[in-house]
């Protein structure tokens, strides 16, 4: 059982941004910017290379839903980055597929 399975099971606390029968979105414990959220499938899928069409439909269709919820949480959000790291060489540290939804602010200096 990986750490995101434990969050999905409620064994580790997290702040839920969105949830339905297929996915959970919760605040990242280490916020790149305020509101940094992770969208994860509830199914135990390691990375994008494990995606079936069914998983892809269930997860990817939720990206705009969760992005809208994140944006609505703070009027100062002027943009959003969406990223998924797949494989250790790509920076993946948790072997349970996840999508980073990272709010951007006019003065966040992340581009510099
Ligand atoms: P990765 O590096 O695999 O792309 O992203 C994993 C993310 O999971 C990191 O941004 C990290 O901060 C987050 N994370 C790791 N452990 C926990 C946890 O226990 N709770 C929450 N909310 N996020 C976590």
From TrEMBL:
Domain HIT: 3-111
Top-rank taxon: Bacteria
Keywords: Methyltransferase, Transferase
Active site, renumbered: 98 (tele-amp-histidine intermediate)
Motif (Histidine triad motif): 96-100
Keyword set includes Ubl conjugation: no
Any GO molecular function: methyltransferase activity
EC class (word): transferase
Enzyme Commission number(s) from the entry: 2.1.1.-
GO biological process: methylation; nucleotide metabolic process
Keyword Methyltransferase: yes
Protein name: HIT domain-containing protein
Organism of derivation: Leuconostoc falkenbergense
């Amino acid at each position: 059982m990986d750490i995101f399975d434990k969050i999905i099971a409620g064994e580790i606390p997290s702040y839920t941004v969105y949830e339905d029968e297929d996915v959970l979105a919760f605040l990242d414990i280490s916020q790149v910017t305020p509101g940094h959220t992770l969208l994860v499938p509830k199914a135990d899928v390691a990375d994008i290379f494990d995606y079936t069409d069914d998983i892809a439909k269930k997860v990817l269709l939720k990206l705009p839903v969760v992005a809208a919820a994140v944006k609505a949480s703070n009027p100062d959000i002027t943009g959003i980055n969406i990223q998924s790291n797949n494989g250790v060489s790509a920076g993946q540290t948790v072997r349970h597929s996840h999508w980073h939804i990272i709010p951007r602010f006019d003065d966040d200096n992340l581009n510099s």
